[in-house]
Amino acid sequence: MDNFKLCPNGHYYSESLSDCPYCPKTQNTQIPNVVNDDKTVIHSAGNENGNSDKTQIFTPPATANEGSLDKTRIVNAKQQTSINHLEPQKNARKLVGWLVSYTIDENGIDFKLFEGRNSIGADNGNDIVLPNDSSISSKHLTILFRLGTFKYKDELSTNGTFINDVIADEGNLADGDMIKLGNTIFRFRSAV
């Protein structure tokens, strides 16, 4: 490249300048301990006060005792926390079934049911919130999965709960049962 210089940090800049305009003037501009390695760790750079406004990439020496480096780690100098995006987020409860509705959306919409208690109603505090059906009570129905069995209980709703077109206060659910709350119809599907 004609009319350009290369600084020690790998920046190309015009020969007419005496110093690299991309390198900070108040900090050491050398990249420390760069080793050709196939693992990378990113640390926030900072001064003595822990302020960080730049990110530097360091490759740790082979003797570094930071655990396995088979994944990329991002570490903040202040918090010293490690983030690993390769691990899936885990829900605290096991997925055991679904409620599927074509009355809410003609293309279909499903709601997950988890082991333990699942509350359904118009109030935002429910696990499944149905705010667009004015005939659904604030806390309308509870579906409970315990010891391999699905149980339901109407929570004294104004318009009641219908299971397979029969009004019911409580009982057991079987795969394929139809549940009607207000004007909303669900098909219950078990995952166990």
Describe the structure.
The protein is mostly beta strands and 192 residues long. 0% of the residues lie in helices and 39% in strands. The protein has strands at residues 4-6, 12-14, 41-45, 54-58, 73-75, 82-83, 95-101, 109-114, 116-121, 128-129, 141-146, 149-154, 161-163, 166-167, 170-173, 178-181, 184-190. The strands form four sheets. A six-stranded antiparallel sheet has the order 8-7-17-16-13-14, with no helix packed on it. A five-stranded mixed sheet has the order 10-9-11-12-15, with no helix packed on it. A four-stranded mixed sheet has the order 4-3-5-6, with no helix packed on it. The N and C termini lie far apart (66 Å). Residues 64-69 and 79-87 have low confidence and may be disordered.
Principal-axes shape call: rod-shaped
Q: Name the helix and strand elements from N-terminus to C-terminus, one letter apiece.
A: EEEEEEEEEEEEEEEEE
Task: Record the strand order, biggest sheet.
Answer: 8-7-17-16-13-14
Radius of gyration, rounded?
A: 30 Å
Structural class: mainly beta
Question: What's the pLDDT, averaged over the residues?
Answer: 77
Q: Count the DSSP helices.
A: 0
Q: N- to C-terminal separation?
A: 66 Å
| Largest pleated sheet | 6 strands, antiparallel
Helix content estimate: under 10%
Count the E strands: 17
Per DSSP, what share of the residues sits in E-state strands of 2 or more residues? Answer: 35-45%
